[in-house]
Amino acid sequence: MYSDETIMEEYQKFLNDENSIVIGTQHFDFGDEMLNIEITDFVKSLVNGDAQNNGIMLCLTPTLENKETDKGQYVGFFTDHTNTFFHPYVEVVYDEVISDDRESFYVGKENRLYLYSYINGKLENLDQLPTCNIGTVKQATKGVYYTTVSAEESSNYTPEMIYEDIWSNIVFNGTKQSDVVMEFVALPRQFYFQIGQGKISVPRIVPSIYGINDDEKIGIGEVREIIVDMRRKYTTDKRETTVNAFYRLYVKDANREIDIFGGYQPIEKSFLNNYFIINTADLIPNKYYVDIKVLQGKETLFYKDSLHFTVVSNVTNRYA
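Structure (tokenized):
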């Protein structure tokens, strides 16, 4: 525990933008707001070994903390033992988004080509970074690697020609695998850069979601890949993949909608489809809703309640 004097000194340091044990502050205008403090720098200092993990303490400002009153007063917060949605948690945002351009490799723009390492149907890391004849390879996430073709380099590709990207140095559990040869077609730059006069007609896209049934009950611990099937309106066979699609996961509390991941998150774009992952281990028993947002030309389209499902407790609930 810190003494009152220490808290006062550290709080004054924080106000003066000096190094302090105080991580952040929040003002409550009405008293029913959620506690939401940015702790990124604190977590980074723990990861880098620059600070000790002694936990995080909540307290009022020193003047209020030490104030004497005739009647008892308190501020209450839900704890990790609270069996409601208002369960305290630390939110970590991983901003490496997969955006595979294998099916939309345009001349004159930066493009990414990906390699997916599936072992027995699951994404698994290789022993080391593979290599590619196209360029330098980086890792996006578990079992997913990519190389970037800059806009200047892609200008050297001839439109409507088929090219090969050859991935080598593929080693898993000490065993070297054969080279992987894949193909992509260089698309004309005018399909991407539409500069000039006239109005550009952008086909309307309607998203459909697969991977969780509507109103399905899911046990905690399940991991689901949610496919967002983007098809042109009034068609059944014209499917598109896009980097301009986002999803929002939230719960409802009376007339409020409460975001789970801080608003709209990018939907991944793979070679075959758009998708995102829901890991119910990160959620608590409650009913959840998914909205989809698509940017098309000058329009921003919202698809409310595209999916809703319920996460149930494996201990206290029975579910089909």
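The radius of gyration is 25 Å. The mean pLDDT is 86.
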